[in-house]
Write a structure and sequence with these properties.
This protein has about 70 residues and is mostly helical. About 90% of the residues lie in helices and about 0% in strands. It has one helix and no strands. The chain is rod-shaped.
Length: about 70
């Protein structure tokens, strides 16, 4: 027990290489996911800031339009 054939050693090395590549790919995917979430968060914050500026103005315009319609 404990003795491996050349074929078994090669298969184990291939398996270790594939496992390392799989782990590396998962790490890269996790990094990309984190980057995408950060971009989405930044975009959401920018949209919120724009809405905070323009929504009150839109309300004033809509109110003025209603007043003109009702005049």
């Amino acid at each position: 027990m404990g003795d491996f054939t050349v074929e078994e050693i090669i298969a184990l090395k291939k398996q270790a290489i594939l496992s390392d590549k799989y782990d590396e790919r998962n790490t890269l995917q996790d990094q990309k996911t984190a980057e995408i979430l950060a971009v989405k968060q930044t975009a959401s914050q920018k949209i919120d800031a724009i809405n905070a500026i323009y929504n009150p103005q839109i309300e004033i315009i809509n109110s003025s339009i209603e007043q003109i319609k009702n005049a």
